[in-house]
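[Meeting: bench + compute handoff]

Bench side (C.D.) handed over the final construct sequence. Compute side (W.E.) agreed to return the predicted structure before the next meeting so the bench team could plan truncations. Sequence as handed over:
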Amino acid sequence: MQLSPNADPEIIHSVYQILSGRSGQEESGNLLSKAYEVLGDAERRAAYDRECHSSRRQSRKFFDPSQSAQGIKSEQRKRNGILSLLYLKRVNDPEEPSMTIWSSRMC
């Protein structure tokens, strides 16, 4: 739904109503409904936020700027980091396992 982490329940409901009116495909409608179920429930949303925060912190560890020197070891760390990000994306979203250079957030 691409909402701000600070969005209040009224905003979430409004965005859901707007998007559900536009959703023409059953698959995207189901995905939208699942997102609304999680974001509409305070406890489930808090758990989702914690999971996203944890995964973002973990992904940052892959690319430590202090170790970005050139050389074989550095190249291995970069490649392992990229493979780890792709693996996490595939595990967390098996229906859409790809990433682009513009994918800044996994959640």
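W.E. noted at the follow-up: The chain has two domains: 1-40, 57-107. C.D. will use this when planning the next construct.
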